[in-house]
Design brief:
Urease accessory protein UreD, 276 residues, nickel cation binding, UreD, chaperone, 7-stranded mixed beta sheet, 17 strands
Length: 276
């Protein structure tokens, strides 16, 4: 039996408070809104009770943020794409930001189990004046549990229409990609942190974000497997390869905190669920 779950999450500013309204169909929902940073920023945890996707399962996530709202979204644990026979397992996330909206999209990693056939798509539309920090973390198999990614395919798609497109298919049989120093070099975690602006950012602002990312890369000793760039005036991105998730996630969290301080003058405030 396949699951097709849909969640629509809507952020609005009501009396100087960012408020989340949602509706859902199937096993996908949002837990209670939290305000550890005050009323201006609404923290939410996205929950998928089945815990993973198999062939034929589809998760559709639609997020909208209105002018003046600020939402932060994370998950309680990793997403999992299990072994599939036949049909694809598909997750589609669409984010639409109105003028003046801010969003932080910070889900924990997606784990690709051996034998999966999966697609994970993220599309972001930002109106002028809107801004977002987000990340995408993928783990190929579970190396520490002796469960390597030996079979299967995974398509990763991240897009800001007309501005930026990251799209790649990972096939477990493609050893040139997985093992070559020109590919993943044996690493099994691929991660990206990105800043998206609906208005072209000033060069000095983008250079400040790049400098923060590169300083963190140097401090973590990941000069050979991480890099930061600005492929467009509305995009800054940090890319990381790591043998497992933990070192990549540590780097992403540090740079995310530095970026939100630089961009929005906000202190580090990690979601409470990360500490559990």
């Amino acid at each position: 039996m396949s699951w097709h779950a849909h969640l629509h999450l809507d952020y609005r500013q009501e009396a100087a408070r960012s408020v989340a309204r949602f509706r859902h169909d199937g096993p996908l929902r949002i837990l209670q809104s939290l305000y550890p940073e005050g009323d201006a920023i609404c923290h939410n945890v996205l929950v998928h009770p089945p815990g993973g996707l198999v062939g034929g399962d589809t998760l559709d996530i639609d997020i909208e943020a209105a002018d003046g709202s600020h939402g932060l979204i994370t998950t309680p644990g990793a997403s999992r794409f299990y072994r599939c026979e036949g049909e694809l397992a598909l997750q589609r996330t669409r984010i639409r930001l109105a003028k003046g909206a801010r969003l932080e999209w910070l889900p924990l990693e997606a784990i690709c189990y051996s034998g999966c056939r999966a697609e994970n798509r993220l599309t972001i539309e930002a109106e002028p004046g809107a801004e977002m920090i987000g990340w995408d973390v993928t783990a190929l198999g579970l190396p520490n549990a002796n469960q390597p990614f030996e079979r299967g395919t995974y398509l990763q798609h991240i897009e800001v229409p007309g501005v930026w497109l990251e799209r790649g298919r990972i096939d477990a049989a493609d050893q040139r990609l997985l093992q070559s120093p020109l590919g993943f070099g044996g690493h099994r975690c691929i991660a990206s942190l990105f800043f998206v602006s609906g208005t072209p950012a000033a060069r000095a602002r983008r250079e400040a974000l790049l400098a923060l990312a590169r300083t963190a890369i140097d401090a973590h000793g990941r000069q050979e497997s991480a890099g930061a760039t600005s492929p467009h005036a509305e995009i800054v991105v940090l890319r990381v390869l790591a043998p497992v998730v933990e070192p990549a996630m540590q780097l992403l969290r540090q740079v995310w905190q530095a970026w939100r301080a630089e961009l929005w003058q906000l202190p580090a405030s990690s979601p409470r669920i990360w500490a559990t």
